[in-house]
Amino acid sequence: xxxxxxxxxxxxxxxxxxxxxxxxxxxxxxxxxxxxxxxxxxxxxxxxxxxxxxxxxxxxxxxxxxxxxxxxxxxxxxxxxxxxxxxxxxxxxxxxxxxxxxxxxxxxxxxxxxxxxxxxxxxxxxxxxxxxxxxxxxxxxxxxxxxxxxxxxxxxxxxxxxxxxxxxxxxxxxxxxxxxxxxxxxxxxxxxxxxxxxxxxxxxxxxxxxxxxxxxxxxxxxxxxxxxxxxxxxxxxxxxxxxx
Length: 244
Ligand SMILES: [Zn+2]
Fold this sequence. Notes:
11 strands, binds zinc ion
C-alpha cells in the first residue's frame, strides 16, 4: 500500500531498507478512521497485524514485523528516559535523540524463551489463561536481567508447572513484534513427571504422547487446539513429533 501523505502531518515514518533497490518506508496511519475515507477506499482497510500476518508471504511478514516493532517503539519512547524531555527521531527511525541532555535511545528487543518440555516419548503442553477455547501450547516467558537462556528456561518451567528440567537445547528463534520480542525456541528435557500448574498464568498442563500429538497435527483429533502453524510453538511441536 502506498501510504505517503496519509495520516496526520506528524505521523511517525521510518525507513525500513532497500529491497532490489526499492526503498521501503513504514508510516503510522493507525490514527485514521477505518474504513478509510471513501476516496481512499481502494487502499483497502485496516486489519489486526497478527491476523494479517497469516495472509502474507514470509518476506512480507518480516517487513511487517520490522515496521510494527519500530513504530511501536517510537510511540512508546517520545520522552527521554534520562531527563524526561521530548526526544526527536533520527537515522531514518533507528535512533531517537534527546535535545536537552543529548542522550541517544535505540530500538529495543526483549528476549523471551519459548520451550517444549519433553520426557522421552511425551511432551508437556499447557493452557494459558489467555488462550481461547481449548488451546494448548508450549510454555514461554521473558528472560530476566542476568540470566542465560538455559537458566530462563529452567526457571520459567519450574515457576509455571513446578517441573525440573535438565538439558536445554536451542532450536530456532522468531521475532514477535507484539510489541518487541524475540522468541528463543528451545527443547527442555524433563527430570520428573509430576505437574503442578501455577494457577495464575497456566491453568492446565499435561503430558501428551507422540502418537496423540501426531493425530492433533494431522487433524485426526480435536482433543485440544494447537498453536497456529506459523508460530514458533508450532514448529517446536511439529519438529519433536517428527522425531519418532
Ligand atoms: Zn534527555
